Amino acid sequence: MTKSNVDFDLNASGAQAGDKLGVWRLEQALAEVPSGRWWLAQHSLSHQGAWVVVYARPEDAAAVLLRIAQTEGQPWQHPDITWPLDSGLTSEGRPYVVFPLSEGEPLLLAVRQASLRRRLEWVVQLCELLLMAETAGFGLVELDPSLLWVGPQQQLRLMALALVRADAKAQRMGSLQGQLCHAAQAMACPEAQARAPGVASSGAAQVYAVGMVTCLLVNGRLPQQAEPANAPVQALSQWLALKPEAREALDELLRRATAADPKQRPADLGELAEAVEGWLDASAGMASTEAAALDAVQRKQRAEAPTMRMPLDEAKTMPPAEPPSSATLPPKRSAKTLPPPKQPSNRPSAGPAPAPVAEPEPPGRAALWWVGGAVVVAGLVLLVWLR
Question: Can you tell me the distance from the alpha carbon of 159 to that of 138, in angstroms, rounded to the nearest whole number?
């Protein structure tokens, strides 16, 4: 089996709005996913709404149609497990699968605005769903991230195309049953090639697959990918906002979950879920939103900037700053000559001081000055007239 990367082909499905797939008419494109594209569709007779995933590659047809054959008439029901309604092939030979209409959106669309904590909580929920399916007698043949959804209450949902009965009858459906869809091949563990065709994954294989999905949700890429997938995952700011020890602990958790040696992985999905929950509990103080994480990164950068903080040893070795040659330093004052503290003033400190304004004299004194002046003038006039 060739190992592939998870990526998004923008020309994945040649379907267009208005195309008819059997009795279903495509209404509106919802999201690009690694396997193809999700559409909102409507039944041409009953006008019933539905979600339809149109696969990108015709070579996925054999695996998809065999998965459909196994899921027909499944009696087990769970609120977050959705079984297919219908399936078929497009005129180009690409498979499509129809699911009941429900509130929510594909996980790889919801993850773009989700916090790192929320993404890891979805991983825990995925582990719990698969454990409940195992208890009900179903095993996971492959894990395609395209078939993971998020409901209106932020709960993870599984479009159950690859859940098969873990009994002998299901395992005898043919060698093609061991074939994996293209998008699920990147999630398959190294020992998957040695597994008998059609047999559900072991606990260690499911841990590996969920671990690869965790890498995709946390880093936006798989361990073997040099570049992130084309679906943007806003994880960088929150990743940088983590404390170094928390980041290293999460890296170690991802390395364990995706280890090539099954003995180095968590024993089962329950142990993986406990490891993720343990990391979340230990990192309870991390930023819970992208905005808070970005603010934390900016504060960290300001705190570590060389102009804001200098090592003590480097500061001690720096020579004292010399004043400019034209500057004149004021003479030092002794403690005895210091003026008393002044009261705070509302006037601006810059600029020349305003000229003092004389205080107006009392009105009575001004009147006396005017009377005296008038008497003096009258006396001078009388003296001149007598001469």
Answer: 14
Of 100-114, 190-204, 343-357, the least confident: 343-357
Kindly report the backbone phi and psi dihedral angles of residue 5, in degrees, each rounded to the nearest multiple of 5, phi listed first: -95, 160
230 vs 43: CA distance, rounded Å: 32
**Residue 7: CB atoms within 10 Å:** 17
* pLDDT of residue 46 exceeding 90: yes
What pLDDT score was predicted for residue 310?
Answer: 39
The pTM score is 0.69
Task: Indicate whether 259 pLDDT > 90.
Answer: yes
Specify the amino acid at residue 123.
Answer: V
Cβ contacts of 118 within 8 Å, gap of 6 or more: 154
With 0-12 CB in 10 A as exposed, 13-18 as middle and 19+ as buried, what is 53? buried
pLDDT class of 179 with cuts at 50, 70, 90: confident
Query: By percentage, how much of the chain surpasses pLDDT 90?
Result: 41
Mean per-residue pLDDT, 149-154: 95
pLDDT at 212: 95
The 49-55 sheet, strands edge to edge: 20-21, 24-33, 36-43, 49-55, 95-100, 86-89
| Residues 6+ positions from 37 with CB-CB distance below 8 Å | 12, 13, 15, 29, 30, 31, 53, 54, 56
CATH topology of domain 20-298: Transferase(Phosphotransferase); domain 1 (1.10.510)
